[in-house]
Amino acid sequence: MPNDTNLTGRLRAVLFDMDGVLFDSMKNHAYAWSHAMTDFGLHMEPEEVYMNEGRTGNGTINLLAQRHWGRNATDEEVQKIYDAKSALFNTLPEPLPMSGALELLRKVQAQGLTRVIVTGSATHALLDRVNAAFPGIFAPELMVTAFDVCHGKPNPEPYLMGLRKAKIDASEAIVVENAPLGIQAARAAGIFTIAVNTGPLKDEVLLEAGANLVLPSMQYLADHWHEIYEQLK
Ligand code: MG
C-alpha cells in the first residue's frame, strides 16, 4: 500500500466512476468518437479516446479541431459532431455491467459503506440503467452527473460534489476510477484513488495521473476487496 495516502479518517464511503468502472462502455465510446470524427475530417485514434475520457464533448472536439483545423470548432460544428457521435453510440449494443462490479458493490454495501456515483455522463436515463444493473445499491441523491457541475474532470468539482452529497470528508472516502483525467480529478479533491486498468492504457499512465494503487480489473478489486479494505480502513 502506498504511503502518500490521504485516507486518515475512518473509511465511510466509496465513490465510483461509471464508464469503464461500473459499465464496460469505453469500447463503445472509443468506437463512436473515432468513427464520428473521421466523417468530419478529424482523426482520433481509439487510444486517444481513453486518454481523454472524462473530458466534455466540447473539450474533446476542440482538442481535435485545434490539431486539424488550427482553430476551435464553432458551436454549430460542436453540436453536429456531438450529435453524430451520440447517434453512432446509440446504434451500438447496450454496454454490459463491468465484470466484478456488482460483487464489489454488494460487499461495500454489506459493510455499511456509502456508495456514490461520480460521472461526467449526461444521460437522462442513467438512473434507470444503474438501477437495472445494480438494484438497491445507489440512492438517486448520491449521484453526481454532468448536470450537477460546471467543470468536468480533471477539475475536482465532481468529486468534491460527491463528498458534499454524501456529507463526508475527503479523508473518509476512496475513489474507484479508470481514466487519467478522472484520477487527476479525484486526487485534486484530496481523495485516495484506486485505479482499475480496464482499458488499453499502460499502468504507468494511471500512476502518473496520481493513482494511489493500480489494479488490473474490477473483478480483481472485488476478489481482494476485504484485504484491501483492511489496509485502508
Ligand atoms: Mg471512467
Structure description:
The chain is built from 11 helices and 6 strands. It has a 6-stranded parallel beta sheet with strand order 3-2-1-4-5-6. It has 2 domains: 150 residues, Rossmann fold; 66 residues, DNA polymerase, domain 1 (Orthogonal Bundle). The relative contact order is 0.19. It has 233 residues and is α/β, with parallel strands linked by helices. Helix content is 45%, strand content 10%. It binds magnesium ion (MG).
Strand order within the widest beta sheet: 3-2-1-4-5-6
What's the helix-strand series?
EHHHHHEHEHEHEHEHH
* CATH structural architecture of the largest domain: 3-Layer(aba) Sandwich
Please, how many helices?
11
CATH superfamily of the largest domain: HAD superfamily/HAD-like
Named once each, the bound ligands are: magnesium ion
What share of the residues lie within helices?
40-55%
Number of strands: 6
How many structural domains in the coordinates? 2
Classified by CATH, the class of the largest domain is Alpha Beta
Radius of gyration: 17 Å
Globally, the shape reads: globular
Structural class: alpha/beta
Low-confidence segments, ≥5 residues, pLDDT <50? none
In whole angstroms, the N-to-C terminal distance is: 12 Å
Instruction: Profile the largest sheet.
Output: 6 strands, parallel
At CATH level 3, the topology of the largest domain is: Rossmann fold
- Approximately how much beta-strand content do the residues carry? 5-15%
